[in-house]
Design brief:
4-stranded mixed β-sheet, alpha/beta, 33% helix, 9 helices, 314 residues, UDP-N-acetylmuramoyl-L-alanine:D-glutamate ligase, 6-stranded parallel β-sheet
Amino acid sequence: MILTVTPNPSLDRTYEIPALERGAVLRATTDRVDPGGKGVNVSRAVAAAGHRTVAALPLGGPEGALLARLLEELGIEAAGVPVRGSTRVNISVAEPDGTLTKLNASGPELDDAEAEALLEAVRSRVADADWIACCGSLPRGLAPEWYAELVARAHRAGARIALDTSGPSLTAALRERPDVVKPNAEELAQAVGRPIATVGEAVKAAEELRELGARAVLASLGADGQLLVDGTGTYFGTAKVTAVRSNVGAGDASLAGFLAAGGTGAAALASAVAHGAAAVQLPGSVMPTPADLDPSAVTTTSDVPLDRVLKEPA
């Protein structure tokens, strides 16, 4: 079972349009609403793969009630913590060429009692979890050290932690030695305080995060692939993608694939790459099922192309 923690979940509404014109009245060709937030997306991908998952998250207002219902319909158990504020609603606008414009709301502010209640919701379910995935930004009211406290409590209970966050929250949590951290290229550059333009520079940055406490680093490098640096070695993975439809949730699908495949080594990286590649070819934040995966399109290697220039430098 994979337990996910999403301190600032959302309802994600996606509109597909022919072209985005500022100031115009536009009509969407399709639209959909999905339960959102990085940890929620991980749960959705785990559930789509047929595994058990529990999503711990704050829920508030009618938006929170709808989010809980959508999770239930997907076969995801919601360990919901009632909060006074309303769950946020995020908007994504997708164009045919793959361009995505996102409007993310800030979400409710959590007080001390609500923050502690969320930690307790995790604690009460730790014994059943093979992995705990803590994902996303922290809402207003939670200090950057909140994730560090969660990692410390989970480790005391014997659980393995995967952490997907950035900025001060990531920095503070590293001292508690999370088992896996999952930055993208921009977050990796931010964490080490310098630009990243090549795969080799990304490897160096990942090694620095390990020196600061991370036991493994799974880094998403966008169209360039994914990088894994852990105790077994350094690996690089890529996949052939026919057409990008939406990259919303692709990194979360990758993390789900990585954890579902054991969370260590080249085989787990290959699963992460396959899940991410499948996700970008689906609409909105739809998570891939096993039928969407194409393992034959994935290549992983320990002969990392250090001099390769990133298509999307950070």
